Q: What sequence folds into this?
């Protein structure tokens, strides 16, 4: 998931001092009666092991992961985890370089839609043998977050957290315009009507306040949700045909286009760029759709805001669910130690630490549904993110996803600047996206 809003370029290594952990002594048979016990010898300490862990993130995320690593080291003293963190773009560039050299990190983070691109390269360790030996490990993990990592011969990755998309709204703007707050029963028609009421247009045609904004490059923020809600789909089951140009999907695209260029309630991408790419955070858009990763940044905004579930469409209510997870490099020299760390990440102590971070939802239900997540400092109903799983669709995961999504995002960019028409451009984009799918069969 491309969390560019609050990501800073950072590259840090953390090395925790390893210390030996004593193994439990073996049980010995009692000596024969009348015979003095033999001298006992203290068992050898478990050999210290170092593993590397690489992730994307920003300083706040690093702080929390450093604490998780420190907690893990305290629980498993013979394993030291060296953490390296980078911004999103630098992370993938460096990871590809390390994989090409045959020297990947032992553990590294994975954005679920990109998972099969890496799994198909035979660079990830099959975790199924470990999972078979730990049959209770995944109990209590939300099943929606596990689907992305399943393959015919097992799981090569595990989720660490997840994101569902919800509607954020500026309460101050709603109050000033005397517009009722969004509810769980809102439709996309309600969204459009409220957005028009919340839009301010000067006599010279300049828009000084927009009713709505969401980025349209990647599917995750709104267009996949709306297409599903309108009864359409994104891609067919065997990932051979792009479906975003089908009639039901076009209804969703037309809604976006009309809000942007007819109602003028949604800033085009050029105008959005003038506000740092996030007019909602800038205080010039009354609503947006985004995931939990935005909460820490929005908490610093100078206005009151809240959240509501995604609107309903003619086919019902829909949102997307996506996860960040961990994988182990197939070339890892310490796969057992690496898996011990993955096990810890799914434990209640580690998941509670992640909840404290506030960027994402824990995958462990017992933590996500506890005060550790639900009673965070930001005064919003955190449960909406969890409840949205009931109508969530998994963000598609397939080989060639990155190139396919770029073909769509880049191909449709000229629509959202007003340079090209919706229909013909969408036709061309679907053709280009299908060519990517054919190449990646």
A:
């Amino acid at each position: 998931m491309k969390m560019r809003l609050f990501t800073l370029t950072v590259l840090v290594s953390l090395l925790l001092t390893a210390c030996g952990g004593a193994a439990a002594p073996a049980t010995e048979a009692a000596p024969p009666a009348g015979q003095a016990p033999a001298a006992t010898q203290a068992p050898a300490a478990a050999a210290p092991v170092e593993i590397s862990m690489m992730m994307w993130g920003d300083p706040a995320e690093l702080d929390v992961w450093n604490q998780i690593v420190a907690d893990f080291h305290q629980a498993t003293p013979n394993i030291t985890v060296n953490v390296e963190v980078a911004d999103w773009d630098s992370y993938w560039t460096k990871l590809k370089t390390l994989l090409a050299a045959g020297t990947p990190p032992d553990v590294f983070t994975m954005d679920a839609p990109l998972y099969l691109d890496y799994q198909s390269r035979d660079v990830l360790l099959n975790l199924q043998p470990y999972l078979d030996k730990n049959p209770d490990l995944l109990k209590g993990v939300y099943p929606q977050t596990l689907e992305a990592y399943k393959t015919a011969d097992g799981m090569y990755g595990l989720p660490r957290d997840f994101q569902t998309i919800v509607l954020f709204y500026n309460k101050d703007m709603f109050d000033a315009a005397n517009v009722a707050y969004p509810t769980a029963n809102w439709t996309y028609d309600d969204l459009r009507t409220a957005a028009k009421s919340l839009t301010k247009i000067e006599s010279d045609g300049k828009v000084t306040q927009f009713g709505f904004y969401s980025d349209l490059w990647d599917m995750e923020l709104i267009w996949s949700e709306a297409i599903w809600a309108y009864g359409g789909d994104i891609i067919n089951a065997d990932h051979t045909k792009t479906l975003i140009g089908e009639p039901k999907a076009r209804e969703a695209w037309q809604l976006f286009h009309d809000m942007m260029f007819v109602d003028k309630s949604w800033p085009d991408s050029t105008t959005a760029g003038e506000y740092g790419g996030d007019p909602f955070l800038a205080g010039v858009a009354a609503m947006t759709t985004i995931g939990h990763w935005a909460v820490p940044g929005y908490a610093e905004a100078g206005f009151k805001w809240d959240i509501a579930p995604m609107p309903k469409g003619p086919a019902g209510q829909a949102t997307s669910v996506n996860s960040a997870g961990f994988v182990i490099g197939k070339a890892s020299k310490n796969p057992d130690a690496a898996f011990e760390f993955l096990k810890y990440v799914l434990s209640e102590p580690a998941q509670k630490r992640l909840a404290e971070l506030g960027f994402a939802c824990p995958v462990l239900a017992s933590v996500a549904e506890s005060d550790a997540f639900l009673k965070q400092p930001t005064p919003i109903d955190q449960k909406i993110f969890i409840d949205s799983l009931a109508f969530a669709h998994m963000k598609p995961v397939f080989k060639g996803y990155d190139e396919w999504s770029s073909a769509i995002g880049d191909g449709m960019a000229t629509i959202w600047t007003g340079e090209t028409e919706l229909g013909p451009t969408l036709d061309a984009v679907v053709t280009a996206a299908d060519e990517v799918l054919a190449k990646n069969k």
